[in-house]
């Protein structure tokens, strides 16, 4: 990429970075959250690729159904085994775009929003690897993981990891469009709001309360 050789970045990256010039709001009601999910060719962070990205925004602690992003990526790789999970064929009728265009759209959509995902480390790593292939830096957004937020509620300490299906069942969230990026993003958005209501019982909740402690281990 020419911008890498010149030690400069494309305009869309500069625009993305410009949104981080101000300090992040701490009051959840004043924060724009973007709940997102990726469907991929597999679970190998380095070797597999993103097939689709689904995003939905939350503002004033309300899901903004009209504020969504969904894109499908062209498949250079194809794993027939995962088709039965996500249903995305290599060709099919869906309009698909190049990975570079998908990243540009994703960055333009999220701006400086706080990102939310279930088991977020994987999705963030997949996005960051796509950016790396474009010779771009990693995402700058703060990230929240609904799996970690559930741990903070201390509602169930029997194990450290709960699937999206398990938590959806616990909180009576219908699993419509499960295993589509947009469907999973919407389910996760509902879960996120339910978790916030559980966590906001004794004190005024802030973003710092929701973030992982500094001694955390992992990708996020």
Strand and helix map with partners:
Layout: H1 2-5, H2 11-18, E1 33-40, E2 50-59, E3 62-73, H3 80-86, E4 96-97, H4 99-110, E5 114-117, H5 120-133, E6 143-145, H6 146-153, H7 164-170, H8 181-199, H9 207-210
GO cellular component, one term: cytosol
Function: DNA polymerase III is a complex, multichain enzyme responsible for most of the replicative synthesis in bacteria. The epsilon subunit contain the editing function and is a proofreading 3'-5' exonuclease.
GO molecular function, one term: DNA binding
Summarize it.
This protein has 220 residues and is an alpha/beta fold. It is built from 9 helices and 6 strands; from the N terminus they run ααβββαβαβαβαααα. The protein has a 6-stranded mixed β-sheet with strand order 4-3-2-1-5-6, with helices on both faces.
What string gives the helices and strands in order? HHEEEHEHEHEHHHH
> Mind telling me the CATH class?
Alpha Beta
Instruction: Report the average pLDDT across residues.
Output: 87
Report the CATH architecture.
Answer: 2-Layer Sandwich
The helicity comes to: 25-40%
Shape annotation: globular
Can you identify the CATH superfamily?
Ribonuclease H-like superfamily/Ribonuclease H
DSSP strand count: 6
Under CATH, the topology can be stated as Nucleotidyltransferase, domain 5
Q: What's the structural domain tally?
A: 1
How far apart are the first and last residues' alpha carbons, in Å? 28 Å
- Give me the oligomer status: single chain
Main pleated sheet: 6 strands, mixed
Helix count from the secondary structure assignment = 9
Sheet/helix structural class: alpha/beta
Q: Any low-confidence stretches, pLDDT <50, length ≥5?
A: 82-90, 214-220
């Amino acid at each position: 990429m020419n911008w890498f050789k010149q030690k400069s970045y494309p305009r869309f990256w500069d625009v993305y970075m410009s949104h981080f010039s101000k300090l992040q709001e701490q009051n959840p009601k004043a924060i724009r959250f973007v709940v997102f999910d990726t469907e991929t060719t597999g679970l190998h962070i380095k070797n597999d690729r993103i097939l689709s990205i689904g995003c939905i925004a939350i503002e004033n602690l309300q899901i903004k159904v009209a504020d969504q992003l969904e894109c499908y990526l062209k498949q250079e790789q194809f794993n027939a085994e995962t088709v039965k999970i996500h249903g995305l064929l290599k060709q099919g009728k869906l309009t698909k775009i190049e990975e570079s265009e998908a990243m540009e759209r994703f960055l333009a959509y999220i701006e400086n929003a706080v990102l939310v995902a279930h088991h977020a480390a994987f999705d963030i790593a997949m996005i960051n690897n796509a950016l790396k292939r474009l010779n771009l830096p990693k995402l700058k957004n703060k990230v929240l993981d609904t799996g970690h937020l559930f741990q903070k509620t201390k509602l169930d300490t029997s194990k450290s990891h709960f699937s999206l299906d398990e938590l959806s069942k616990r909180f009576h969230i219908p699993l419509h469009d499960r295993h589509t990026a947009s469907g999973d993003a919407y389910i996760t958005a509902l879960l996120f709001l339910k978790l916030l209501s559980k966590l906001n019982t004794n004190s005024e909740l802030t973003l710092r309360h929701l973030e992982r402690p500094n001694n955390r281990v992992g990708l996020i």
